[in-house]
């Protein structure tokens, strides 16, 4: 997107914003579903409030990145302190803090439910699944490397 910045600055900005927004929204689908369930069933989980804070700061981070506030309102006054890029990073860090706090609260709250019912995999199962993954990855690399042999030289 940086190569397009001179020719098409709006498209460049939109593609860079989309590169961060799309994965966040996709990864947050379970969280948004949990918000929906809590709104319908009026849940009393303590972590939901912290998840709300995380989500608000995440959207604020995106808004500040896309809008270039406050320097757009007062050009020249926020060149060194208070620039939108600095505020963007501060909001992102606060959002991440709330996200980690909510995850720790969820883990502490749900730990007693998960521990008795879950069976830990054995060492053989862990090493076996790692070996299968490595073998499949090496097979894909080998097939792609072999296909290069049959391509004509430029």
Describe what this molecule looks like in 3D.
The protein is an all-alpha fold. It folds into two domains: 2-112; 122-153. Helices cover 73% and strands 0% of the residues. The chain is built from five helices and no strands. The chain has helices at residues 9-27, 29-41, 46-67, 84-114, 123-149. Helix 3 packs antiparallel against helix 4. The longest helix has 31 residues, at 84-114. It is flat, with a radius of gyration of 23 Å. Zn(2+) binds at residues 85, 89.
Q: Keyphrases for this structure?
A:
single chain; 154 residues; mainly alpha; 2 domains; 5 helices; 0% strand; flat; Membrane progestin receptor gamma-B; membrane; AdipoR/HlyIII-related; transmembrane
Strands, helices and their partners?
Elements: H1 9-27, H2 29-41, H3 46-67, H4 84-114, H5 123-149
Topology as H/E string?
HHHHH
What level of helicity do the residues show?
A: over 70%
Mean pLDDT: 89
Output the structural class: mainly alpha
Q: How many beta-strand elements?
A: 0
Main pleated sheet: none
Count of discrete alpha- or pi-helical segments spanning 4 or more residues:
5
Fraction of residues in β-strands: under 5%
Poorly predicted residue ranges:
none
What integer value in Å does the Rg equal? 23 Å
Q: Report the span from N to C terminus.
A: 28 Å
Counting structural domains, the number is: 2
């Amino acid at each position: 997107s940086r190569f397009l910045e001179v020719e098409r600055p709006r498209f460049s900005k939109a593609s860079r914003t989309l590169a961060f927004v799309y994965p966040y929204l996709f990864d947050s689908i379970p969280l948004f579903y949990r918000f929906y369930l809590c709104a319908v069933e009026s849940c009393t989980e303590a972590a939901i409030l912290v998840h709300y804070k995380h989500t608000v700061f995440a959207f604020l981070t995106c808004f500040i990145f896309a809008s270039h506030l406050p320097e757009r309102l007062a050009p020249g006054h926020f060149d060194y302190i208070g620039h939108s890029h600095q505020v963007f990073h501060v909001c992102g860090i606060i959002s991440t803090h709330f996200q980690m706090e909510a995850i720790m609260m969820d883990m502490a709250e749900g730990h007693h439910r998960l521990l008795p019912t879950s069976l830990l995999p054995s060492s053989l199962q862990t090493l076996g699944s790692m070996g299968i993954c490595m073998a499949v990855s090496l097979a894909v690399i080998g097939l792609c490397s072999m296909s290069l042999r049959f391509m004509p030289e430029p």
